[in-house]
Write a structure and sequence with these properties.
By secondary structure, this protein is of the alpha/beta class. The chain contains 9 helices and 14 strands. It has helices at 2-27, 60-72, 86-91, 106-109, 155-165, 179-187, 198-207, 233-246, 249-257, and strands spanning 36-41, 44-45, 49-51, 57-58, 75-80, 97-98, 112-114, 119-128, 147-151, 172-176, 193-197, 211-213, 219-223, 226-228. The strands form 4 sheets. Strands 8, 9, 10, 11, 12 and 13 form a 6-stranded mixed β-sheet that branches. A 3-stranded parallel β-sheet has the order 5-1-6. The radius of gyration is 24 Å and the shape is globular.
Length: 260
């Protein structure tokens, strides 16, 4: 009986030592708390997010999200989805935050909260070389009948659809699930132009011979991170993001993907 009690005591002591060791290791270095930080994105938007040669997620948003997760001591988990599903996934709590070159708009603010801005984006217009469309104004000329492609639920979609509804342009709009689909339709002549963020536009033009970007920009906007309404993460991420901007980390990440 004494031997049994002694054995139990030894086992309990061993368990205690292991527990203390695990607890200490979780607090050291950049070990995580075990909590996950689920990021909703659409990985067809280089250089902000895309799938690398080895199947891993890469890009500006992915690296900034990872830096934020490290600051918060969390494990980053990337959930890839259609762009038009990101806001609803964040709003419903299926994802903790959303990053995909998301522009802050009044419409989106009805569904989610946003972080401080971390980047400035420019909406550009891609056309075939030799196109009759020379400037943005050509899309708004009297009697213009061009077919303009956009990615569904992007700001290009929101803005150009609004201009059509307001009668500011007589052009028509074609909505696509992905930017790649829109560009493919442009290459095959199904549409006349694509409105898309400038950096992804550069990537698509480089990958598709015969396309060019107009010199005049469509619009300029600020990118931010989306959170569910009232999420405690908004303040936590803002604090981490501010530190990463102040110490130059965000700029280093941007510079890695975008030439000055």
């Amino acid at each position: 009986m004494k031997m049994t009690k002694r054995l139990i005591a030894v086992v309990l002591a061993a368990i205690l030592v292991v527990a203390v060791f695990v607890g200490c290791s979780a607090k050291g270095g950049e070990e995580t708390t075990g909590e996950k930080l689920v990021l909703a994105t659409s990985a067809d938007f280089p250089p902000y997010e895309s799938i690398g040669d080895n199947g891993e997620y890469v890009g500006i948003d992915i690296e900034i999200a990872q830096a934020i997760a490290d600051k918060l001591g969390r494990e980053l988990v990337v959930e890839n989805m259609d762009f038009d599903s990101i806001i609803s996934s964040v709003a419903s709590g299926k994802a903790d935050m959303g990053m995909a070159g998301l522009t802050v708009t009044d419409e989106r603010k009805e569904s989610v909260d946003f972080s401080n801005s971390y980047a400035t984006g420019v909406q550009a217009i891609i056309v075939p070389e030799g196109s009759a469309i020379k400037t943005v104004d050509d899309l708004y000329a009297e009697g213009a009948a061009y077919k303009v492609g956009v990615q569904l639920s992007t700001t290009a979609d929101i803005y150009f659809s609004g201009d059509i509804e307001d009668g500011a342009t007589t052009c028509t709009i074609e909505e696509y699930t992905s930017a790649q689909e829109a560009v493919s339709s442009l290459v095959t002549g199904k549409i006349d132009a694509v409105i898309i963020d400038n950096e992804p536009a550069k990537s698509y033009v480089a990958a598709n011979e015969g396309l060019t970007i107009l010199d005049t920009k469509y619009t300029e906007e600020e990118y931010a991170i989306a959170f569910a309404k009232g999420s405690e993460l908004t303040a936590e991420v803002n604090a981490a993001l501010d530190e990463l901007i102040a110490d130059g980390t965000v700029q280093q990440i941007v510079d890695k993907y975008i030439a000055a």
